Amino acid sequence: MPQPTLSPPPAPGALPWLSQARLPPTRAIEIVDERGERRAIQIPDERPLTVFVDRRELVTLMTLGSRPELLVLGYLLNQGLVAAPAQVESVTVDWEVAAAAVKLRTGIADFEARTARRVVTTGCGQGTVFGEISAGLDALVFASSPPGRVSQRALQRMLAAMRELDSVYRMAGSVHGTALWPAAVDTAGPLFFVEDVGRHNAVDTVAGWMAMARVPGGDKLLYTTGRLTSEMVMKAARIGVPMLVSRNGVTAMGLDLARRLGMALLGRAANHRFLCYCGAERLDWDATVQASA
Amino acid sequence: MPQPTLSPPPAPGALPWLSQARLPPTRAIEIVDERGERRAIQIPDERPLTVFVDRRELVTLMTLGSRPELLVLGYLLNQGLVAAPAQVESVTVDWEVAAAAVKLRTGIADFEARTARRVVTTGCGQGTVFGEISAGLDALVFASSPPGRVSQRALQRMLAAMRELDSVYRMAGSVHGTALWPAAVDTAGPLFFVEDVGRHNAVDTVAGWMAMARVPGGDKLLYTTGRLTSEMVMKAARIGVPMLVSRNGVTAMGLDLARRLGMALLGRAANHRFLCYCGAERLDWDATVQASA
User: Fold this and answer.
1) What SS3 state is found at A262?
2) CA distance A186 to B87
3) Phi, psi (rounded to 5 degrees) for A270
4) Which of A29, A62, A158 should be substituted to probe chain B, the one whose Cβ sees the most B Cβ atoms within 10 Å?
5) Which residues are within 8 A (CB) of A74 and not within 5 positions of it... i.e. 6 or more apart?
6) Reduced 3-state DSSP string for chain B
7) Burial annotation A232-251 (CB, 10 A radius, 16+ → b, else e)
8) Is B61 touching A (CB cutoff 8 A)?
9) Nearest to residue B182, comparing CAs of B173, B192, B172?
């Protein structure tokens, strides 16, 4: 019987090893339209992915599976179940068994206690966060100066670029996209872009990418197609991004939390238009842009 | 010290007592638009509502609070935590403490076991269902004949009526609506209509209403503004409604489940248009309607 290969001890601060188990995000199906005509369309093809942490079942996520390892890593970070990527030795996704095996370097000492309290969240109305997510909220408050500013012209460039982006949404609809941009919004496009069946998964995947790429959030902005709910605001704050822009609107708790954390929230953002719900001081208004809008 | 009033023993099959703790669904805020102009808009005003079942904390739901007691009752039913409304003695919502106290007549014998397994679902990507939700799936399969049919003309009437409905969505956006209609779609409007921050909460509230009104689902259709995910399909099946119509699209798991259960799924439904993803045999096609479309 073959012995499992022993890995060398990890370097301090080393990044986790991730498998690369990507799946195609859509599936072709046949529909009948209102004229009774049959034709083929693409629909989002999500799958359940059960996350095991050191062999203990944590949760089942539904995902398109574009970047499942980053999703799992970001989920653990955003839930506060691990404090830094270096705590994770590996994330191995196996679609044959629809499982993500997470191996920790240190273990979660109080795993049961940390995952005991369920809070079912907005959005779909019933998202899960564990009790830890709102722990240490005060540590997340953003400094009002100096960084984390965006100009109206940069916003306009970003919205134009997002509109042109080749996406699952364009092909199949019914998914949420999230993109991380430098606040200066250069022409190179977003730093990272991902789509998933849920906006929470998309932003968790961004968190996973930022952790692996060691990219800080302070001078970035996060674009999402989903609503700006309290969990979205919380997740943006966790990854250190003080500015959230959405094609969609805001909810009261999202707004309250963003005000408390000193973030900028912009919604209904499309073409030249947007509403700034809070944090207007992070925007550099531009009279010429406004005149041409 | 006053003694608590003793209630008389419940009649068999009695309905639960519900408080009437409605809240206004929106709040006015001031925004700054892209021209730098300040104005007031309405946004959805959701609150956390923590559900206690016989004094044990179950879950925290985020809700607009339009019909919180029906939401809680429907949630318990749709999660399979109670089998019938008669098992519930009362649902008392108190917004001062953001809590819903559920008193059972019988208790949940295996409460811990039933709520131990968390499945984080699609939609927002991370909705919670407990392990029990997919239990007894085969018992939910719909007979292919005779009931549960809808004509194309009735569908058109329903879509026209939904478009005209006075709603939180029209005023504030960023919410999901769900309406229960008789499949014949008369002019009296939907039997029940509710909006909430999440489509799952909205359909759970419909389930609570049906339980209280003792309304069966077999000859009804359910309209939702949200995506047709596997949980939406599951919840419709649980309340016995074989036809789901959405302004939005479908996901692969929603479609697979609906096929397995013998349901009709229609999406991208607006004005005269729709896509029938499955269950086309439940539709009565109408050549005159198609010609005028």
Assistant:
1) coil
2) 60
3) -160, 140
4) A62
5) A203, A204, A205, A206, A207, A208, A209, A211
6) CCCCCCCCCCCCCCCCEECCCCCCCEEEEEEEECCCCEEEEEEECCEEEEEEECCEEEEEEEECCCCHHHHHHHHHHHCCCCCCHHHEEEEEEECCCCEEEEEECCCCCCHHHHCCCEEEECCCCCEEEEHHHHCCHHHHCCCCCCCCCEEHHHHHHHHHHHHHCCCHHHHHCCCEEEEEEECCCCCCCCCEEEEECCHHHHHHHHHHHHHHHCCCCCCEEEEECCCECHHHHHHHHHCCCCEEEECCCECHHHHHHHHHHCCEEEEEEECCEEEEEECHHHEECCHHHHHHC
7) bbbbbbbbbbbbbbbbbbbb
8) yes
9) B192
Q: What is the CA radius of gyration of chain B?
A: 20
Indicate whether B18 pLDDT > 80: yes
B63 burial via Cβ count (<10 Å: 0-12, 13-18, 19+): buried
Please state the length of chain B.
293
Test A124 with B119 for CB contact under 8 angstroms: no
Q: Which residues of A touch B201 (CB under 8 A)?
A: 125-126
What's CA A236's distance to the chain center, in Å? 8
Token couple for B247: 């302004």
Does residue A120 contact residue A133 with C-beta atoms inside 8 Å?
A: no
Mutation for testing the A interface, residue in B72, B114, B122 having most A CBs under 10 Å: B122
Beta partners for residue A32, in sequence order: A38, B276
Q: What is d(CA A51, CA B120) in angstroms, rounded to the nearest whole number?
A: 10
**Plot region of B65 (φ>0 → left; ψ -120 to 50 → alpha; else → beta):** left
State ipTM.
0.81
The C-alpha angle with vertex A193 and arms to A43 and A278, in degrees rounded to 5, equals 110
Confirm or reject contact between A202 and chain B (CB < 8 A): yes
Q: Which amino acid is at B284?
A: D
Kindly state the helix (H) or strand (E) to which residue A97 belongs, with its residue range: none
A59 CA to chain B: closest CA distance, Å?
A: 6
Q: Give the sign of the dihedral formed by CA B135, CA B138, CA B144, CA B146.
A: negative
**Which segment of A3-17, A131-145, B243-257, B264-278 scores lowest on mean pLDDT?**
A3-17
Q: Is A78 on the interface with B (CB under 8 A)?
A: no
Tell whether A136 is within 8 A of chain B (Cβ).
Answer: no
**The amino acid at A127:** G
CB contact under 8 A, B123 and A123: yes
Chain A CB contacts of B23 under 8 Å are: none
- Nearest to B261, CA basis, from B79, B136, B131: B136
Residue B150 in contact with partner chain A when CB distance is under 8 A: no
Beta-ladder partners of A276? A266, B32
Across chain A, which has 293 residues, the per-10-residue mean pLDDT values are 45 85 94 94 92 90 94 92 92 97 84 60 43 63 75 92 85 87 88 92 96 94 93 92 95 93 95 93 80 57
Paired tokens of B134? 């997919």
B2 CA to chain A: closest CA distance, Å?
35
- For residue A287, give the 3-state DSSP assignment: helix
**Assigned token pair, A82:** 């691990």
